[in-house]
Amino acid sequence: MRVPILKQGPYLIASIQDALTDEDLAQLQQELVARVGQYRTRGVIIDVAALDVMDSFASRTLRDLAHAIKLRGARTVIVGIQPDVAFSMVRLGLSLVGADTALDLEDGLALLEQHV
Amino acid sequence: MADQTRPSVTLALMREMGLTEETLARRKAFLELRDEDSERLRGLHDLAQQYAERVIEDFYAHLLSFEESKKFFTDPVVLARVKAAQKQYFLRLTQGHYDAAYVEDRLRIGVAHERIDLPIELYLSAYNFYLRTVMKHFVEAYGNHPEQVIPLFLSLLKLVFFDMGLATETYLFQRERTIREQQEAIREISTPVLPLRERLLLLPIIGAIDSPRAQQITTQLLHGIRTHRAKVVVMDITGVPTVDSAIANHLLQTVQAARLMGAIVIVSGLSPEVAHALVRLGVDLGTVQTVGTLQDGIEAAEQLLGYAVHKVESATADRPVERS
């Protein structure tokens, strides 16, 4: 399933609606990193509220993505991590170092407004 | 639907205790309580009817000679009723068909005794008394023929142990249920999540934290963040007497999980004992914002959220209290 990427002012918003395969994730990563340069994007928000699980591959991809986007001059915020997902990620020792996190899209946008 | 009677309390209890046809069959197999025992006991029934009255009288004379058992039978009406019930109970032992209905009957009696708090040792001594008295009657009836008396007695012994198992388990099960219900009640009231200001939650924790409670705190906290859209949570552990390394790590993980959800957790109220213990255990809380008191915690949280609290000069609390 492809993830739609929306442009909102200086920000890009990718809202994941369904469980993603590893290929989908890899594709999302490439697409986002490419688009960041295209629109002079200053911030990227990835909404993962629909995800019930976050495995090590997914969290590593998100981390790499955030690093790559940073190298392209923008900031990444992961929003909407569910309570159970958050705790199992910590349990498994998965972290999202390099990416900011926020409660939901609204908070994510507010965070970018503040820092960018 | 007239033929579908409502399942009684004891039937429900049997289900809860997992007493099904299969498990009952296994219990009997453990005791080697077989069909031939059932037959043998049925053959005893006539004799049992003859000695039943005497066994009961002896038994209650014995019971009433002790202060602690006497107090259960002060009312003569109750005593007569109990004696009649006891006689039925003893007679049922020699009627065969030790099936689910038999077990249900036995549980009902166990529940009744548990309800009046009859001590379990009285219960067990009753079985013992019964076996000893019955042995005397056997010898009287069969004279000096151990080859007849012993198999009969052994069959009875198996059945009585079957009954004892059921009775004691009913006791234990009822008490465990009480404990479970109380634990449930404690859990429900133990970790409230309180919205203190817009996007600020307070999570006061009072009392010792064990592993299930730690998990419950995590769930309450993380779901509370989502429900109240919290940005900052003050977790106050002033009322927590001790923290071990497992619990400390669990709390640490909770704080990290909250951060993944975009919320900051401030832990307040670390008592000197808890602080020493954490240092001794080598738990690294360096990544967690900790403050000494709840007041500090709330002030820090308000600062993070951009709240500033000012004292108004003409505060109501400063005025003398008006008397009406």
Q: Report the top-level CATH class of the largest domain in chain B.
A: Mainly Alpha
Shape of chain B: elongated
What is the number of strand segments of chain A? 5
Overall mean confidence score, pLDDT of chain B: 85
CATH architecture of chain A: 2-Layer Sandwich
Termini distance of chain A?
Answer: 31 Å
Please state roughly what percent of the residues of chain B sit in beta strands, choosing from under 5%, 5-15%, 15-25%, 25-35%, 35-45% or over 45%: 5-15%
The helix-and-strand class of chain B reads alpha/beta
CATH homologous superfamily name of chain A?
A: STAS domain
Number of domains of chain A: 1
Average pLDDT, all residues of chain A? 90
Distance between the first and last residues' Cα of chain B? 67 Å
Could you describe the largest sheet of chain B, including whether it forms a barrel? 5 strands, mixed
Could you give the order of strands across the largest sheet of chain B? 1-2-3-4-5
Order of helices and strands of chain A: EEHEHEHEH
Strand order of the largest sheet of chain A: 1-2-3-4-5
What does this structure look like?
The complex is a heterodimer of chains A (116) and B (324). In chain A, 46% of the residues lie in helices and 19% in strands. By secondary structure, chain A is an alpha/beta fold. Chain A has a five-stranded mixed sheet with strand order 1-2-3-4-5. The relative contact order of chain A is 0.18. Chain B has 324 residues and is of the alpha/beta class. In chain B, strand 4, helix 12 (272-281) and strand 5 (289-291) form a beta-alpha-beta unit. In chain B, helix 1 (9-16) packs across helix 7 (100-115), helix 4 (45-64) packs across helix 8 (120-142) and helix 8 runs antiparallel to helix 9 (146-190). Chain B is elongated and about 100 Å long.
